[in-house]
Amino acid sequence: MDAYLATARRVVRTEAEALTLLEHSLGQPFVDAMRLILDATGRVVVSGMGKSGHVGRKIAATLASTGTPAQFVHPAEASHGDLGMVTAGDVAMVLSNSGETPEIADIVAHTRRFSIPLIGIAGREGSTLLRQADVALLLPPAPEACGTGIVPTSSTTMTLALGDALAVALMEHRKFTPEHFRTFHPGGKLGARLAKVGDLMHADMPLVDRDAPMADALLTISAKGFGVTGVTDADGRLVGIITDGDLRRHMDGLLDRSAAEVMTRDPRTIAPDALAETALAQMQDRKITCLFAVRDERPAGILHIHDCLRAGIV
Q1: Residue 52: which residues within 8 A CB-CB, separation 6 or more?
Q2: Cα–Cα distance between 261 and 159 in angstroms, integer?
Q3: Cβ contact 184:65 at 8 Å
Q4: Residue-wise over 118-150: b if at least 16 C-beta within 10 A, else e?
Q5: How far apart, in whole angstroms, are the C-alpha atoms of residue 122 and residue 297?
Q6: Helix (H) or strand (E) holding 162
Q7: How far apart are CA 171 and CA 126, in angstroms?
Q8: 291, 305, 307, 294: which is closest to 232 by C-alpha?
Q9: Residue 112 in contact with residue 132, Cβ under 8 Å?
Q10: How many CB atoms lie within 10 A of CB 294?
Q11: How far, CA to CA in Å, does 314 sit from each of 109, 186, 189, 229?
């Protein structure tokens, strides 16, 4: 067991040291790669063979989800027709640790033939890929974590981290916000966390006028099924809310009262553009089950805690 842990720690330490070398190696070529991508009118087309290809798919996916249009093209498939996916306006990013992988030759030649900017990422200085590239990103010399130098470990980790560095730098330059991020992540846990109140709220709200008799308020509460009703003034502004607690506190002579006499004034509200996760936190903190979404002091919808839970916000 101790031997297993010692190996695992050695691998992590070796790759961490490689990442430190990568950090200190970054310089003008990284800036030049950024400029090529920012100036492009098309996509970043990422390609690589074997382990570099697996890393390339992840880099393309990260770029695409953070505001930089990108796609992965397999170099072998490119040689059999998929080169048509790499067109004027694109930027090609080709990955190869040796820089001499035979399968990348056709896609590299295609970029040279049609003057498509090429970013090469490799670990061998003076390799064919880096010599042909418009921008050469050279990975620093670092031992593979396998100890034998034959299993891509440190090299793939550095390539992946370099792709992340490009994606995040581009994202920050473009001022990519969580709202933009949600556009590309509408499903799953991440989409749920970035859902807005307006996406989940109900427009058919329980509302009564402040002068309405409590008999009408009770009917509204029962009919809408939220367990509450909002109270509005003559201008349609939300001025109060009636909950089960308000009903219990005014049980004596309840039906002789108006909504304004029973309501809780200045209820907690939220904006429709707020994150639903924020609304859930407020409801849990105040131990309430509903929040009215208000725009310009007027109710725009109502959100129940169950709406958040059904959407997967926990």
Answers
A1: 95, 96, 97, 101, 152, 156, 159
A2: 67
A3: yes
A4: bbbbbbbeebbbbebbbbbbbbbebebbeeeee
A5: 58
A6: helix 154-173
A7: 31
A8: 294
A9: yes
A10: 18
A11: 51, 16, 9, 25
How many whole angstroms separate alpha carbon 193 and alpha carbon 276? 7
Q: Which residue has the tokens 């590299």?
A: 108
> What's the token pair of residue 23?
């950090």
Q: Is residue 309 classed exposed, middle or buried when 0-12, 13-18 and 19+ CB atoms within 10 A define those classes?
A: exposed
- Say how many residues make up the chain: 314
* Beta bridge pairs of residue 264: 241
* 159 within 8 A of 97, measured Cβ to Cβ: yes
Question: Going from the N-terminus, what domains does the chain have, and what CATH number goes with each?
Answer: 2-176 (3.40.50.10490), 197-310 (3.10.580.10)
Whether the CB-CB separation of 79 and 108 falls below 8 Å is answered with: no
Q: Which two tokens stand for residue 96?
A: 């190869």
What string of pLDDT tens digits covers the 314 residues of the chain? 788 999 999 999 999 999 999 999 999 999 999 999 999 999 999 999 999 999 999 999 999 888 899 999 999 888 887 888 888 999 999 999 999 999 999 999 999 999 999 999 999 999 999 999 999 999 999 999 988 888 999 999 999 999 999 999 999 988 876 665 665 555 555 566 678 899 899 999 999 999 999 999 999 999 998 999 999 999 999 999 999 999 999 998 999 999 999 999 999 999 999 988 899 999 999 899 999 999 999 999 999 999 888 877 76
97 burial level (CB within 10 Å; 0-12, 13-18, 19+): buried
Residue with tokens 């056709």: 106
- Side by side, which strands form the sheet with 298-304? 269-270, 290-295, 298-304
Write out the two tokens for 17.
């040291």
Between the two ends of the chain, the Cα-to-Cα distance in Å is 37
